[in-house]
Amino acid sequence: MDPRATGRARARLLGQARRPQPRRHQGPPGAPHDPPGPLPRRARPGAPVIESTSGTLGLGLALAGIVYGHPVTLVSDPGMEPLMHRLLSAYGTRIEVVTRPHLTGGWQEARRERVRDLLGDNPGAYCPDQYHNPDNVSAYDALARPGKVVLVPMVSGSGEVGGNPGNA
After folding, report:
1. Predicted TM-score of the model (pTM)
2. Which of 46, 73, 76, 136 stands the most exposed, by the fewest C-beta atoms within 10 Å?
3. What angle do CA 82, 88, 92 make, to 5 degrees?
4. Is 70 a member of any domain?
């Protein structure tokens, strides 16, 4: 796949041509916004972004926060890898760690509860709400199909030996 491919071009390359959707919001292409729904809502300029994560999504949000000027608060649990915690902190992300699991929903529900509390305390904050985003399923669908190989471009640093072991 051409690493420069983005949006619809990437979807076509992955065999997932999408129907064009009417643009329902203003702002730069790729700016964070809610999944399609009756009343789409976007993050206002400079609005805090708050989401639950165990790491990977948080990294993407942290980088988007830097690019688009949004402070990012992530809610996680004690299972977050220390290295990821330090990396997210280095990107200026505020990390809240829940201290005990929810009685019936475990760590994930405890994180979601804390996100709801933080959203209540921060009017105007934006939450991508990964748990109710239909694009989550379709994004992984192509990668999860048996017998289908998808090449994903990767940018990585390497030492003087010119290799990066472990990324096969």
Report:
1. 0.61
2. 46
3. 135
4. yes
Q: Could you list the residue range(s) of the whole structural domain that residue 62 is in?
A: 45-144
Q: How far apart are CA 116 and CA 136, in angstroms?
A: 20
* Residue whose entry in the numeric block shows the structure tokens 């649990």: 77
Is 114:77 a contact under the CB 8 Å cutoff?
no
Q: DSSP letter for 51, please.
A: E
> Which amino acid would we find at residue 132?
H
**Would you say 30 and 60 are in contact if contact means Cβ atoms under 8 Å apart?**
no
Residues 6+ apart with CB under 8 A from 32: 42, 43, 49, 61, 64, 68, 70, 126, 128
Rounded distance, CA 70 to CA 61, Å?
9
Do 32 and 128 form a contact (C-beta atoms < 8 A)?
yes
Phi, psi of 51 (to 5 degrees): -155, 155
pLDDT (tens digit per residue) in 27-80: 444 444 444 433 345 778 889 999 999 888 899 999 989 998 999 999 999 999
Bigger pLDDT: 91 or 28?
Answer: 91
- Looking up residue 95, the CATH number of its domain turns out to be 3.40.50.1100
